[in-house]
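Notes, Module 5: Reading structure tokens.

Key idea: the token line is not a picture. It is a compressed description, and you learn to read it the same way you learned to read a sequence, by spotting repeated patterns. We will look at two proteins. The first is printed below with its tokens.
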Amino acid sequence: MALLATALAALALGGSAFAATPQQLTITASDGTALACSLTEPDGTPPAGGWPAVMAFHGLGGKHQDLEPAALTYFVPAGYAVLACDARGHGTSSGAFGLDGPRYVLDTKELFAWLTARPEISDTQIGAVGISLGGGAVWNATVAGVPFKAIVPAVTWTNLATALAPQGLSKSGLVQLLAALVPQSRWDPDLLAAAPALSTSTNMATLTAIGASRSVAPKLASITTPTLLMQGRHDFLFDIDQALRAYKKLTGPKALYLGDLGHSPAPNPAEEQATFYKAILNWFDHFVRGVPNGVEKQPGIVLAHDPWDGKTTSYTTLPQTKTISVALPGTTTMSGATGKVVRSVRVTGGPHETFGDTALTVSYSGAKSWDRLVAVLAISGNSTPITEGGVKLGSASGTATIKLMDEAVRIPTGKKLVVYLSSTSLAQDPADALYLAAVQPGAQITIGRTTLHLSVLTKAVSR
């Protein structure tokens, strides 16, 4: 899994008028847990009131050193101090990994208090940026009342349950991959108890409970902290909807940047980093430091082109979309874990660019021990899917609606679209391990008429 933190760690370090060296230190939490951290400050005399600062939070399986290149390359040269720490259960911090549980919120409160108590740091001019797991920490701390002046939750979730198991079917292969990033010997008991449900899509009430205490979705309307959301346009862990729902509900100043950053299959081009870090700095300059740079007057939504070409398209409101519905007729019976149905269609016009809520409606019958359907939508000849989705079935026959992840992908003119239906995503490609938990060998189901409801931008922006 190409995590964004890996891309950050690979940033080249540039020269700076505020040359600095990260100070490695240990901060002890109130329960005695030792948190490994670094504090990077600009050289020279702090301004009146102290340096404005950024608290930075790394991704799953990461460490605070992953964030130091960004601190040295972007934030410190702009006059910000940066505090970054290994989350408990990560790196050389002690404590148990809790997937942004309540103890993580308390850690953030205590780290904020530690930082603002330093005489060279401002008491009030503190922003926060978090990547993936760290983005969840930023959201949860903000809801809990940590007084950040501005936040940037990046490539993260607002509803953890729907991110990991949309429509009640776990992204089992991805969950297993993520779980391996932190040894289970470091997990807290609640998370360990939920692990089987995450992998098998059974006892989903456990996942719902875990997700509820770690998700801001029900509380978004209460957040007035200026928020710059950053999300990947092609990310199979946290899709565009995780950020788009937040953008719709937030009541304070807000903006949304959608780019080629994120989790697999996002390419994370190094050339794009300067663009999105400029957006972050402009956001912090205005809302943390009070610089009148006009960022609050700019269009709220920015969509980077795919592949990255150095250009973006801005929208003052949500991008307009249209739905193209096409029938995929036929009747096919599939059996066992490797059974699959493949249907294809050419969508007229184009080029098209997917955006919004694409779905498949599937007529099925004769389901015997077949309790799930996984759908993969791909461009013919391209091994990387456009999007995927899955749903648990509740009866032996009927019509299932499979909601596919909200991904922004260009479909060239004249290209054939291929839909794969099975119990796993392996039906599309042996390397596509998003949905791995399969039906039993003797399972069977008959797939009838299928309709693709393809949501695309009214006008494609990528060329």
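Here is the second protein, with the sequence above and the tokens below, as before.
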Amino acid sequence: MQTLISALAGENEAALAAAALEMASIEFPELIAGPYLDRLDEMGQELGDETDGMSGPEFLAQANTYLFADIGFRGNERNYYDPKNSCLNWVLDQRTGIPITLSLVYIEIARRIGRPVFGIGLPGHFVVRYDDGEFSTYVDPFNGGKLLDEQECRELVTGIAGAEALSDPLLFRPANTRYILIRMLNNLRAAYFRREEFARAATVLNLLVQSSPDTADYYKGRGIANVHIRQFRAANADFERYLRLQPEADDRDEIVKQMAAIHRWLGTLN
């Protein structure tokens, strides 16, 4: 996990794919990253050969044909909340994923051939932006590389997250490697809680706590996961940390009751 940990610390912007593959090892413990990095290299080489010298609009048209028609990448609408959708190896093997992992593929292939593509973390729906100084547009890899202007992005956000999400002044800020990885970890955390895979949820939350040690909700989430896997002392420490960071938390009484139950259980062991 060393590459992932360093990327979460903001130390290696170029390590996105390698870090994402380390993350995927939570779901796929036997994963070997090398062949998948090689595949991204090969895809970049193929697309680069096809688009050498093309203008921005020509490049995007060919990139979308290559990725979504020729290779067949597509959005996984049927099993959107499957944790495998957050695993780069599975996305490359199955050619299906959610907005952020399909965007990651788009970003990584473009980076390999020097094309200016970067992530945009819209609320509820990740997209990418192409901007070469002469031509700029947004691209939605989840929907076959559909090109969007800023107003269409705003409409997309409104439909998913509500109009209040448009007030964020950083709505269209480029997403760096750390941001993308944290957002992927949060997706994975939610998927594991939804499936009640609490041991894996705790592993994800260990990484989130390490990357953002002052984020109270990560301690609460890890505390809940630790209760389910019967790591009661660790759960109690997490709940204590949560309440120190959020002394006026709306669910304070509930957390205090949970801690009291943990203390009673631990008392039976003494």
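Summary for the second protein:
- The longest strand covers residues 127-131.
- The mean pLDDT is 95.
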